[in-house]
Specification:
By secondary structure, this protein is mainly α. The protein is built from seven helices and no strands. α2 packs across α7 and α4 runs antiparallel to α6. The longest helix is centred in the N-terminal third of the chain and has 36 residues.
């Protein structure tokens, strides 16, 4: 066994090593971040992921005849579909309020700090809308419904990212 003086020496050595490692890690992170910030370039808007999701969305829209089914199919649960439309309208209205009014007109870039309730309300409305659409369209496409709706969602998001 180790006596008290050896334990104290060992403890002090570990403290010094830990302090040295913490100082090295902190300065290394700072250097990496500043180097990354210097080298940071904006990502190109058109990349293979964007092309893939937009193409997949167009193909799904065409092959499942998405718009005709949504407009004419009697198997859709209309109450859930209408609830999804209302929730999606709330979500899009809040997004447009943040982007167009707060960011463009008022010049508030960090609107989530000025209005902290907007992001969680928008997220909750979108999640509820996606659940409502899945329930409403389940009788039409069965277990393919979440895949179809997710592909449509990603295609729209990538299309919007090209615009802005």
């Amino acid at each position: 066994m180790l006596n008290d003086s050896e334990l104290a020496t060992l403890r002090n050595r570990f403290k010094r090593d830990a302090e040295f490692l913490m100082q090295g890690a902190a300065s290394g992170d700072h250097d990496e971040k500043s180097q990354e910030e210097k080298d940071a370039k904006p990502l190109p808007r058109i990349n293979r992921h964007t092309i893939f999701w937009i193409t997949a969305s167009v193909c799904v829209t065409y092959y499942v005849d998405f718009l005709r089914v949504v407009m004419e199919n009697d198997d859709i649960k209309s109450w859930w579909f209408n609830a999804g439309l209302v929730l999606l309208g709330i979500c899009l209205s809040l997004a447009m309020y943040c982007i167009v009014y707060l960011e463009w007109f008022k010049g508030i870039l960090h609107y989530d700090q000025e209005y902290p309730a907007i992001p969680p309300v928008t997220t909750a409305a979108f999640i509820a809308a996606s659940c409502s659409f899945n329930i409403a369209l389940w009788p039409v496409w069965s277990f393919f419904t979440p895949l179809i709706l997710f592909t449509q969602f990603m295609g729209v998001v990538m299309l919007i990212s090209l615009l802005g």
